[in-house]
Structure formats: C-alpha cells, structure tokens
Structure prediction request, 141 residues.
Amino acid sequence: MISFRAISAAAIAVSTVPLIMLTAGAASASPAASHDYRLSRCTARGQYATCVTGGTTKNDPTSIHVHVKSSKAGEQVYVAWDVTCAKGSGAGSKSGSFTANTVVNRKIKMPYTRPDYCIVSADAQLQKGGSWIEVYISYWT
Prediction:
C-alpha cells in the first residue's frame, strides 16, 4: 500500500520540476550580472619604491579594490587611497590609508552605494627595503 507521505513527496517532486526548468532557463538567458575590471596599474623599483596609479570607473561600480604586490610576499607597504564618486547630481569622497604586508587586496570604501562612476587613486610605498612594487586598482560592476 502506498502511504500518504510517498504520494505527497511524489506530488511535490513533479510540481517543482517545471519551476526548476523555468528558473534555470531564465538564469541562462540573462547575461552575467557582474564583471571585474582592472582600472589602472603602476610599477616601481628601488629600495623604498613608491608607485601611484588612478583612473575613472565605468558606470555603476559595486566595489573597488586596491592591490599591492612586491618582489617578495610579506614585505611591509604603506598604502593610501582616495575615491570621489558621483551619483545623480551629487558627489562625495572618501580617503584612507593603512600599512600591510604584501600581497594586499583591500576593498576601498565608497561614499555611495552603486554610484554612477568613481574617480579613484591609490599609491603604495615599500617601508623596509625591498626592490620592486606593483599597485593596481580593480572594480566590479
């Protein structure tokens, strides 16, 4: 004899298959929602190398990151950043700095959620020697 639970489970399974197929079809029909872009990059050489880079994002960035690499992982760097974003008829800015050990991948605070665009700059300097540094800015839309 078939139990009520078995009939209920079969009914739920049959009724959800079209919904799963419909959802999968809608997801595959739409383009990818977000993209990672490399905005700008610089490199410098020398014992206390300093590198400065910046640029303007495309429309609607969702997050902005500063990345720092050096000749050896674990080298101490001082990083400073500045971002000015526009949203509608307004504009706002934020800035900050920190000391970290390479490899650095730090999210920059934006003044608005989903701004129209942002102008970003970042710089880094080796603190205790080293010989090479790379700084780049990336963002997601």
Notes: The longest strand covers residues 76-87. The chain has a mean pLDDT of 83. Strands lie at 36-45, 50-56, 63-70, 76-87, 90-101, 104-108, 117-126, 132-140.
